[in-house]
């Protein structure tokens, strides 16, 4: 059975074991020797004792190098689950205990690596576990191979094919309850059964189907009651019938076709019940009623069946004319004709099922490689061995020849051809036995049998004539023995004595034209398709193809196919004849060890090499271990191979041997170390690719989000310059530091947006709230501080409003650049909030709303909001108004003024409502091809996702009238990575390590003598003294003391100092490195204080545009009442990338080492600006 699996990318194996011990397997106590190449004494007794010791400890698998031995346990073992599949996937062969999964994984990976077809040959005698081994192989390949829905469908068909082929192709024998058989329909020996499908049909189909098919108990049918056995212990035929029907459905056989197949199966059983009687020395039907059901099921005329079974149409030629005669048959001939019809029906039906399976497994043979799994009937020795055992044992003899040719003989010949020193190992070559059976010159047994069948034409005495001719032709052969009425052949597996009775009859395999014409008269389409051949009208004398010729031809074609693939071997051993679990018959096993040639195999493997590859394939696979191997090494593959091996310090004498065309490696652990180093290289390059891909994906995602958000406001609302190209982060309050908020929402509910907003009540009083958006609702949450708690157990957060998305009627915004949003809710009061990140909130709200309801979120734009608030004692106060207007004097800051039930919002003109965001291209990444570290990617990948972060602008406060402006409170920027962004954060240990490296590098550079003329020392820089102390209000704020000295590197001419660069912080107790996204200084009113410094830091790989920075800070700076007293300066655009800040504050360093959060100034400052910063390794 050839199983074709589409190739998939093998997953990368993660190894945590020591490189020198990685190949060794641990975890279970080693019993015996897991690889018998390591046996101290190599003989049959030592092999048997090692197998016994492992078998009695529930270990059924053992290695001989790459060959796997499997001892049938006759019970289900516990190590065939998905856990074991995952354990062996991607692992080296000796990394885990011997297992069929290890062999399969090695075969599958090599198929992908070398793009070659592979096959596994499962050999052993009947009942040794070959079919079960084939199942495990197919299950494992289906488990580890990838693919889309179509590939999954094919894999499912392959797995379900087992049930179909077993039902129609396997039967119970004396030695095996599930033996692969052929020519079994019409006869069974004592204590055997016919094919499983007959008994499954009798036990499993429903009553209605039984009546339609005429099915009763198995004992009613002659083809099922010959052996006296209709059941198998611990086997439920009725349940297996359901499994077979389900498998046929998965394979693609519809219900109508299944019924037609079951009709033919039933018809075969009814044909076997047709009996004959002798009338005037000729045969006749004993009971015409026996013809009714076969005729009904096959849809043919009963009289036609009767005529074809008791007579034969023959043509004779007299001169130039042909005469057609109906020759009557005797009883024996009629029985032979009946059985021939039954066998032909079943044989062609089975071929049709195989064709249906092959049609279901449609694939492009040019685009995929194949794994062939050969599960064939095993070697058999019964008390009475006939033609069936002769054919089976011949095929096993051919498979043994393949094993010898490709392992013992070919391997030794290869060493000699390659010039490798080698001591020959003697072995038995069974080619002489194969020639005895199949040779043409001199004629073998099959040729002699075909000649006798052609001469006798069904006459009696053919078997005796065959025996006489065989004794005279091959009687003196060393592997042939004469006997009375029998002959004996010395097979590789032992001496088998065959009874010649029935050899000629079974070999003819003749189906007369009369029976073909009978089936072609059927009204059943399936029956017609089984007999497509054309019957010649004229008499054409040709020698018919015998069954022996067919089996010989098919065996040779099979071997040709196997020789074209890379073979793998599983040698199955049957421990006892009683099929009892954990019963070990030493003599029986020793006999199998001897004829399987295991001793010779061990001797060859001990003296040979575990791994061999042509130089070109070796270089192709391991060239990645040497940087720039193609350019810096000679073109000779042998020299490149030596370069690769020397790069990992392998000893030439012990580790490998160089042949003429191949490299031979002695020990498998050497190959495993090569593989591990190769995987490390691939992992390094994979991280580079991942980093670039993630950056590209995040950039595309950011651009798409900005585009979708812009589409919502396009043509309706003016845009702020600082927000048009802003990145979206979703979390602006640091949810990881607020677990209680997640508890309020629900642990499994994802928070798409979280921000601090201003919520306006019925009196237009602003209060600070958290705005949370989930997949189901919008939440307004209040943060309760310690003094306002009613009791100590009260939560820090209270949900003030919970609005389900389905209840939102509309969202209203003004056409101006303000941040006001009005949520109107069905049958409830509306909510007015001011959200700086309104564009992101709207985009995500629309998406969640559409996902939840399947509708588009209604968004309205109006210069006047009219909405209803909570009920109060004054009904006239329930309706409120918000009016928006443009005031050039307000610039970007909203000025609020309330009057009665109306709130007036004035804001400066923003960008046009048709402004679109600019898509930001991805900066190219230069790949690292030199030396590398296994830890090189963690920080880089993190940086790529954090590079777009920036400090959100806060709205300035300039309220007037009775309305209190609340946007003067501190607005936090996007926090460090949280639950929704899974980048790793840098640890304090890593920080200290890099600080140490920086210090050492600086010292080493300082100790070296200068090569060039040193520059003139710069003039002293201005210094600022901090007038106030500040204790951080939150855990993410930096504290500083009064009288801390700040040294300014460069000073300009305006209000702001800006820098966007890598900066060093030199402190009293140490030195650190960090990435600064912004550094801001502000001088305000010298008569109050000289200067105050604020310098939050964070990782940034992409620079924020200069115009955006200036716009953001200009929006947040407080206009001084004494503008004439202001003295300030700002950096130029070029200086944004080259400024450096030096600060001498020991307290700041200690805080930086223990924190990676926000830094801000004292709340006493008139203008508050805040930024994100992050310390990197």
Automatic annotation (TrEMBL):
Single annotated GO MF: actin filament binding
Domain TH1: 717-909
Binding site for ATP: 124-131
An example Gene Ontology CC term for this record: cytoplasm
Composition bias type Polar residues, residue spans: 926-939
Gene Ontology biological-process entries: actin filament organization; endocytosis; left/right pattern formation
Region annotated Disordered, chain positions: 913-939, 971-990, 1001-1023
Domain Myosin motor, chain residue ranges per copy: 31-679
Keywords carried by this UniProt record: Actin-binding, ATP-binding, Motor protein, Myosin, Nucleotide-binding
Family statement: Belongs to the TRAFAC class myosin-kinesin ATPase superfamily. Myosin family.
Protein name: Unconventional myosin-If
Higher taxonomy: Eukaryota, Metazoa, Ecdysozoa, Nematoda, Enoplea
